[in-house]
């Protein structure tokens, strides 16, 4: 009887360790996913700006709310300061000057930049390259 109690005690400890590990794993995964969402929101602009338009293939215009979420203001950013053409692909880079080597640039689906950069049409989610900083469009 006593040996069976010892076995049950050991089994309960093993089960407890497994449950703690499972819970820790689930919490770790949830925190990792949450941090990606927060990072995306901090760098992005699409959830706090509307009325997007593109002029001259590289000037992005939008109306954005400020940090308090109370006031809207018109803003613009020269995407040449945020995006580069690297080997025919658009990439987020400070002072990239993509418009010098890309043509036919336009917005698709509100925040997707579409250009012909030598290797055909390439797309870039501008939410990765542009931020709303207190109502102003900026390069992160």
From TrEMBL:
Protein name (database record): Cyanovirin-N domain-containing protein
Gene3D superfamilies associated with the record: Cyanovirin-N
Superkingdom to which the source organism belongs: Eukaryota
SUPFAM superfamilies recorded: Cyanovirin-N
Cyanovirin-N domain boundaries: 44-139
Species of the source: Grifola frondosa (Maitake)
